[in-house]
Amino acid sequence: VQLVESGGGLVQPGGSLRLSCRASGFTFSSDDMGWFRQAPGKEREFGAAITWNGEKTVYADSVKGRFTISRDNGFNKVYLQMNSLKPEDTDVYFCNGVRKRGRTYVDKYAWGKGTVVTVSS
User: Fold this and answer.
1) Is residue 76 within 8 Å of residue 13, measured between CB atoms?
2) How far apart are CA 95 and CA 36, in angstroms?
3) E strand or H helix at 107, and its extent?
4) pLDDT tens-digit profile of 7-38?
5) For a tag on the chain, would you pick the N or C end, based on fewer CB atoms within 10 A?
């Protein structure tokens, strides 16, 4: 399995970024996918998930209404559109296949390197 995230960068508060993740090594079109994020010294946390067919999305309260997850099964890609960014969104962002565990979602595969998002003026 290979997960390659891209699209991170430096953005001012209130700005937008679109992250991309290219997946390979598993049947992407059959897997629910998700985005996670991790700040230095903190645990990785769930951000958003999308079902295998794109029909249902779920968001953490911290990003609900600002972030949108989407996917393109033809290209084995999942995206995260991030709007109204805040300094507290500064993290390393990762994608992964996901499975539901209780009321949240957890990763299925080894992690990629992630992409760094910095929100600062």
Assistant:
1) no
2) 6
3) strand 104-107
4) 999 999 999 999 999 999 999 999 999 999 99
5) C
